[in-house]
Every structure is written in structure tokens, then in C-alpha cells.
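ligand=pyridoxal-5'-phosphate
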Amino acid sequence: MEDASARLEAVRKRIREACAACGRRPEDVELIAVSKTFPADAIREIHQAGQTVFGESRQQEAAPKIAMLPGGLKWHFIGSVQRNKVRKLLPLFDVIHAVDSLRLAAHIDEVAAELGLFPRVFLQVNLAGEETKGGYPPEMLERDLPALLELRRVEILGLMTIPPEGPDAESARPWFAALRRLRDRLQSVYQAGLPGLSMGMSGDFEVAIAEGATHVRVGSAIFGKRAYRVEGELG
Ligand SMILES: *Cc1c(COP(=O)(O)O)cnc(C)c1O
């Protein structure tokens, strides 16, 4: 579909412009095309338009789609992680974005050792203390960080957040800035390498880039409006 590749190109252009506006390099911002709720055919079109990195939020939905698509695609798991799904998730996904407890991270580490894998993860932070969302309260993340950094298999890429819904893109800026400041502080206090910031979606990725995002998770701006909500997930 021409539409789909035009939308992809429009998003790429917006990323380039957002980078230019703040003096960053576009190759330092990874675009994750969030394909949840969309069928394998729609993903194939976006892949043919040149996109190789995709995001899914439910294992049951993703597994059959991944099996239908070329092996060269990279998959990021952006949904909340259920312990009992970890064994199925790890072989399918290159990166997991929403790890939010030491217990979960340690479980991932154990399963990864059994499977011979070295998973890469983001630690999700719940900056606003929203009860409806997953994510580490910042102070608990700080408490767990030394133990998280000692896991043998799990590589921590950085921090991820989903800001509270707001009236416009600008309302997300303070949350993006807060995630970056938290990251900077943890890096200097714990000598931790936390280079990644997974933040920004269709409505606000330019603001996220201005605040330092290294991974933007963009769904509807590429695939179009989702017909239904994914349980336990954002719109
Ligand atoms: C669905 C989802 C996205 C993409 O949202 P859009 O507004 O469609 O870009 C990004 N991140 C997470 C965690 C999601 O669940």
C-alpha cells in the first residue's frame, strides 16, 4: 500500500527534522514500528518500505505473525511481561522494554541461561506513580539497580517510560526530561552504563527526541488508527 510507505517516510522525515532541530544525529534514534493489532501483511508492507525493527505488546498475538514474516526482522517486546511468558518471549524478541522488578529481571536471567541467550532490556520507570501502569517507582529502581547490574545474562540498555496522558505533546516533556535526569544521575552514582532512553510515541516523539530519546515507539503514525485496544496496553 502506498499509504503505508508514505506514512513511514513521513515519520522518518519528522525524526530527521526533530534531530536537526536539537543537533542530534538521526542514526542515534532508533525507530520501532509498533505493529500490535496489525496483521502480518501490513507489517510486510512496512518492511518492504525499508523498516526492519518492529514492536509488539502481546506474546500470543506476536508469535504467529513473527513466524509468517522474514527472519531478518528485529522484534522489540514493548508490553508488560508476564513471568509465565518469558520462556516463549526470549527466543522471539531482541529487546524487552518493560522490565520493572528485580524478581522479573532475575527470572529472565535464569531462563536466558537455560536457553543460551543474552537478552537486552530496558527498565520501565513509572515516574508519575500511576497505578494503572507498570514500571518501577524511581526510588525502588535505585534500590535494585546494583543487583540488576550484576545479572549475568541480562544486558540493561537503559530506561523506558510511558508518560501520563496529556492534552498535547508538550505536556509529556517534563516526564521525558525527568527520565533523562534520572538516567544521568544513576549513571554517575552507580557507574552504570545506561545509554538508552526508550520514550516517545506517535503523538510526542519529536519532544522525546529533543529530550534525548534513543528509541521511539511509533505505532499509529505508521500503521494508521488501531481498530481495537490491546488489553492492559495503551490505546
Ligand atoms: C501501543 C504502544 C506504543 C505506540 O503507540 P502509538 O500512539 O500508536 O504510536 C508505544 N509504546 C507502547 C508501550 C505501546 O503500548
